[in-house]
Amino acid sequence: MEKVSTEKKDKSIGSSSFWSFLRSWPAVPVRRTLQFASIFLVLAVAAWSFKFLHHRLIAPQADYQVVTVENGQRTHLNLSDGTHIVLDAGSRLEYPLRFSHSREVFLRGEAYFEVTPNQERPFCVHAHHATIRVLGTRFNVRAWKENPAVAVTVSEGRVALSSSDESAQKTVIIPKGYFSSLTEEGVPTTPVPVDVESNLRWRYNEIRFKDASVEEVMAQLQRWYDYQFDVDDLSVLKQRMTVHIQMTNIDDVLELMSILTDTKITKDGKTIKVRAKKWRE
């Protein structure tokens, strides 16, 4: 970046020469001066208006409600349009107290939506880099930070899944009984048929993972049981597993995880220690 000098260019100009210098400048008509002042005023007002509107756009709106579900909990919400939402532990939802010309909510985590039909106002869910648009249907959205893909399962009706990036062109329509996800690159996968009830069992304290990372599974257990995991060998987190977990006694779940990951797992207060067996040899 070019350095701007603050030094005076001519130190020889005294007070008398300064006034002579001013007198040498041509007189500026009053009318021209007023024109300059008017232009300056318009620019100043425009700059202030832009700053004010920009602040209004990025600042949280006063009529928005934010719900954060604590670990070990689950929350049911009814929105102003009659839409019903079930939020899983550790999830966060931002929504307007009353919808106006659009129906938009912002999700981080997992939620099941039962959207009230409205042909004139589609319902939009923004989750990470994905946008899900519907008119009236029932569907599930899974958007956790440990998995960059946003997964959508439709149990009734149809939804449109696309990237939040407006430059992305591809959108897929997911019909009833189908599943699709938006990859980290912002590309929706081709919808495939799934066992919908199996994908929605988290609402009844069951969850099935298929070829999921251990990190993803442990993150879910942390949200459900409100424990913190302490893993000494990070390579364990990269292991893949397919497992069906029921939210029962935490000790039974940890025993299963110990067998599947070939680790020693113990509890210490609210911390679960996961130790690779090689350190015990």
Mean pLDDT: 82
CATH class of the largest domain: Mainly Beta
Under the CATH scheme, which architecture of the largest domain would be assigned?
Answer: Sandwich
Query: Which structural class fits the helix and strand makeup?
Result: alpha+beta
Strand/helix succession: HHEEEEEEEEEEEEEHEHEEHEE
Helix content: 10-25%
Radius of gyration: 29 Å
Count of folded domains? 3
Give me the count of strands. Answer: 18
> Largest sheet, if any?
13 strands, mixed
Counting H and I runs of at least 4 residues, what is the number of helices?
Answer: 5
Q: Tell the overall outline.
A: globular
Q: How far do the termini sit from each other?
A: 58 Å
Sequence stretches where pLDDT stays below 50 over 5 or more residues = 1-19, 21-25, 39-62
**Fold-level CATH name of the largest domain:** Jelly Rolls
Detailed description of the structure:
With 281 residues, the protein is of the alpha+beta class. The chain has 3 domains: 30-59; 64-196, Sandwich (Jelly Rolls), CATH 2.60.120; 205-279, Phage tail protein beta-alpha-beta fold (3-Layer(bab) Sandwich). Helices cover 23% and strands 36% of the residues. The chain has 5 helices and 18 strands. It has helices spanning 15-23, 30-58, 196-199, 214-225, 250-261; strands at 64-68, 75-78, 84-87, 92-96, 103-114, 123-127, 130-134, 138-143, 150-156, 159-163, 171-174, 178-182, 192-193, 206-213, 228-231, 240-246, 263-268, 271-276. Strands 1, 2, 3, 4, 5, 6, 7, 8, 9, 10, 11, 12 and 13 form a 13-stranded mixed beta sheet that branches. A hairpin with a 2-residue loop joins strand 17 (263-268) and strand 18 (271-276). The longest helix has 29 residues, at 30-58.
